[in-house]
Write a structure and sequence with these properties.
mainly beta
């Protein structure tokens, strides 16, 4: 009787052990998420026709989403209002800032994996294209206590910029639970100059961005 009972217990253990081990080893995977994001931009002009310039510090704020493509990859689109442009020291106490504002729409391919032994920490890298739709362009100048500001299209300014720019975005960061923190670099691929002179002037933006993810669906 005891031998029969022991045999039954061993058989039950052998039948349930693989299922339990599989449950423990089963990957948690990724989930579709969305949420707000915001950050700080350090922008400046680049290109063959740009001399010595300084950065313009601005903000970006918007929404992002991520849709998993298996265990490690995800497509992450976003839309954000972004302050770009550049600053320049003309000399003699005169400085100016080109204030270019865009609605940026990047679509990034994101690669990430959880750290060993931690389900909450997930480093990632990302890259992809972005379209920027200009929503504002102003030139601000200051000298001592005096300052002035005008639209780029003003005849006295004469800085016409294209309505759309194309960029490539690279970045990396880490997800800590529902919080995501990352560093991104936006490389302008097309000139923003629209004066007819074919000047090579492109936006370059280094950004520190943070977001909070909410799960989509169940």
């Amino acid at each position: 009787m005891m031998l029969r009972l022991a045999g039954s217990l061993v058989l039950a253990a052998l039948m349930t052990a693989p299922a339990a081990a599989q449950k423990r080893r089963a990957p948690t995977g990724q989930m579709a998420v969305f949420g707000p994001q915001a950050g700080v931009n350090f922008a400046r002009f680049g290109g063959g026709d740009v001399g010595s310039v300084d950065s313009r510090t601005g903000i970006q704020v918007g929404m992002f989403a991520a849709f998993p493509l298996g265990k490690y990859f995800a497509i992450s689109p976003a839309v954000a209002y972004a302050q770009e442009g550049t600053s320049v020291d003309v000399g003699g106490g005169l400085s100016g800032t080109f204030k270019l504002d865009y609605i940026e729409v990047p679509v990034l391919l994101k690669l990430g994996a959880p750290l060993q032994g931690s389900g909450r920490l997930r480093p990632w890298v990302a890259a992809g294209p972005a379209l920027g739709f200009r929503v504002g362009c102003r030139l601000a100048a200051s000298s001592g206590t005096q300052s002035a500001e005008a639209d780029c299209d003003d005849n006295q300014v004469g800085l016409k910029t294209k309505a759309v720019q194309f960029s490539t975005v690279f970045g990396g960061g880490i997800d800590i639970g529902q919080v995501s923190v990352g560093l991104r670099y936006q490389l302008g691929m097309t000139s923003i100059d629209d004066t007819g002179s074919d000047a090579d002037i492109r936006n370059r933006v280094l950004a520190i961005v943070a977001g909070y993810a909410f799960r989509l669906g169940h």
